């Protein structure tokens, strides 16, 4: 097993006085001299220290544990021809086509990194299994730059979209890593589901601009100067969607902060006992378990209601209600830029619930246009009205439309009261005054009545014919769901995927922690997962923990020899 | 008691045939042997730099044989004979460098001025690691212990910690013997007042108070609390490094003139009381462990001794009242000392002021030796004047009639913030000058020893032009310690704590040898005997793990006991490995049923048990580590002008200019540097690298073009390369 020993780290060049000769590139150990024969190990699978040489005078030595030699596989490293990768061990994924700009024919999910092919292989099943493969599903071995048609599957094996897979193997790709692009249908929901499948298969969500950053660092992109960091980071990314969401996360971040604080407090309690064994009272294990269970529930609740599945799978449901002929259908058409709903001058045209999908800053929104609500003898229309009410009950946001020409009427008053009764006043409502183009006199916004203010969170003026006010309406929706707590279903945060990823990491860590406690593993093992949870939560809030734990130990406990 | 049975033989070997390094006379062949073992890594010895060659050429070989330093030229000079200095000097000399150890008082070599103990959480890991590299502190603690206990026994293998109470006189004497008998090592009393610096900002030697010059291309300063040291008892102070020992003056000013930044720290030590005047009858005794643990991986030093007992007492209401009434008499609250003391080692007045609601604090009474009546009053350091100290001691149960032998005192001293050092512990300003121990702002014998061995190794390597060794943060507690020192802005004496290590599950006491002994071997501090012991130990562990993987059990008493202990059913024909993974099942259970391997030592069984039982956790931490390591280890150019990098925040430009980190990972740990700054830094590095490589490529092409007739192939290759990108 002589080859198992490597003596790289003692070797190299002299100190500054003698500049090193040019080193062969691509070798993990810059220069390997013959190892003395008596160092030959008699232990199987045993290998020693790894060198990590710097350009300065000092050697950097990373010593490995010989006993766990088999654990660190280092194959595939150091082969980048001297090109550095940013965290090259991870494979990143993101939707790289624009989001929220209305439905497009095609949208792309891109994977980049060493595991891009294997992750894509789990998500993508080619329609035609090549004959050479015994079982084509188990291992996808694509030819670079060869388009394949097939379906995308989630981890349970359900088909979620039809896709074209385009493998671009290193170095012939945008990032110079293995890249697989999955061309999906342009619908945001399809894209999100495919992305989610990729993340579940082991990819990490790309940071804003990370593809470009990798491309740059791997020498693929030629940027003349490095001053453009800011631009670089925000140029090519899903950052737009993120930043739109950033404004509505007040409630979420306070939950994260509180979870993180609890993690750190537990860490402090435990670590103080590890460093100052004989000076501390025993740990209150019951308290620790209760805290962890509480945290787990909070995280789970955040995940349940904070919309990972909800927002990405079903998105928000917005129901447009109002008296007949106030322009609900026109509003839906203008908003979804389609002729989805039939529009006539006749009151009561819409008899059933009409659905259209739009995207508000990356959040898929299902718009429901409803039959105008009124007392009616028409059997069909009456059913329509009932359905309208049902749609309103199931909505996340209700848009109450009135006509600027008629203004606020007593029928509107009755309708709102009726709806409020049936929804339990829990669903936030937005008042839309439509047809403002027909209004010649003073703008209606100048006189919002006391009454309207009681029912509605926001008031928006629109003109469905010209599309005026739709943007404000979208703002209003984001505003309303961000601020409004919904007691019945918990909070509805618009967490983005990166945050959800960290929440999942937190939850998993807490689950493992609970398991460690149940199996009565020693105290130190609890800290491993607590740290992991605190780190994941810290990623959301952007803070580091090590110093914090230490200073808390000293401020909280009386310790000292 | 196998160890006891072996005792006579081991004792005999220990004393009549001193261990390998000290070697039987004549010294020279022994020294040569070591030399050759380290040389073997460099089959062709590189020419020494000019300065070194001068040094070597001035030494006549015959002068060395008699061990008399008639010459004033050495390879390495170590200033200070404490725990850092001893490790540094021993490592350097054992690597074959002619080493001079200068100390203020030869009778105080490796003295333990504060608590008579070695080890404890995190510190014990340092001791094991120093031992794994071939250092001395672990063997000394194993030889001179009065009592040993394993702390945190049930809290996990990574935080399990051995602590030894030591006989401080015996410790100092034993270490002195080792130092005196090590080949290549010369000792001498002197007060160093000046570092001699050459034209290229390289160290050339030191100058002493009495005007002697000693020359060497590497100098290690381990000044402890002695540089401008000042001790305080109440309001009264005197210049001293320790009670009864004069401080060292002049060196601070000299270092400041050389451009080093200095600052001041404070620490303290409690009173000592007479053992015979204490009534132990009402006190809770603390006995040592029945089964003694060892710091050293070398079984030759595992010699059991009779253990002594420690006692536990507590502060009382009258203790607290007395302190509250006299707060104005303490330096901190009276306001006449403002140097920062350590948070984890607060004086009793600090504890009482900061934790008002706590009615009582634990106080430990620890013996200082087998033949001295002194008791160390652990947890009771104070800045109160001496006239109040006895009264204060007598408020403690059991000490009502005690006699005080030495008063508690505080000491203030100069240190050099360690961001002025590389992680090799060589200073950035002066080539060949190394700092180790309390001069870098640490506290504790173990922290000192850990730095000492590394600086000794590097000083020796530097003196003969070999590349220096750096231990990465995640490789060891030593690496973590040094990385913290050179990166973080320390405001109090630094003590190693387990919570400072991010991946401590990988840095355990039981695997310190498999992490560091191969390195120690390559450096040249692990001799053949030790290396063979190490290799056969590892082989036994591997074999045993393999055996447990394949050995199966079915039914019987064993299965019954396992399911009883673990609360889990035992499958038929389960492997022993899977059984060991179950909760509460230790290797002992296998032993009990005759399923263990009798050839393994206790330590080896522990290794096997940990590797198997916690495999999942260990693998997970390893993969977490691997994810970050590659990026973290990217080197930063030493000459990077951070002020010119306008994409970094102003704060991080200032901090980075001050600390001058060596790697990206280090940069990210500097306070005030944000992740965005690190991204910007990465991008700048990459831009620079590409600019360089483009330049090189052009030059290469030009050179190749000028030489077309000879070498057509590289041009074609280069051209193809160029077209590619």
TrEMBL record, chain A:
User: A GO BP term, please?
Assistant: tRNA methylation
Stated name of the protein: TrmE-type G domain-containing protein
Q: Which CDD domains match?
A: trmE, TrmE_N
The UniProt keywords, alphabetically, are:
Cytoplasm, GTP-binding, Hydrolase, Magnesium, Metal-binding, Nucleotide-binding, Potassium, tRNA processing
Cited Pfam families:
MMR_HSR1 (PF01926), MnmE_helical (PF12631), TrmE_N (PF10396)
**Which HAMAP family does this entry report, sorted A to Z?**
GTPase_MnmE
Q: Name one GO cellular component term.
A: chloroplast
TrEMBL record, chain B:
Tell me where in this chain the tRNA uridine 5-carboxymethylaminomethyl modification enzyme C-terminal subdomain domain is found: 612-683
Q: Which cofactor does it need?
A: FAD
GO annotation terms (biological process): mitochondrial tRNA wobble uridine modification; tRNA methylation
Which GO cellular component does the record give, naming just one?
mitochondrion
Domain of life assignment: Eukaryota
Against InterPro entries, the record matches this protein to: FAD/NAD-bd_sf, GIDA_C_N, MnmG, MnmG-rel, MnmG-rel_CS, MnmG_C, MnmG_C_subdom, MnmG_C_subdom_sf
Any single Pfam family the record assigns to this protein: SAM_GIDA_C
Alphabetical list of NCBIfam families matching this protein: mnmG_gidA
**Which HAMAP family does the entry mention?**
MnmG_GidA (MF_00129)
- Family listed: Belongs to the MnmG family.
| Full protein name | tRNA uridine 5-carboxymethylaminomethyl modification enzyme C-terminal subdomain domain-containing protein
Q: Name the source organism.
A: Spirodela intermedia
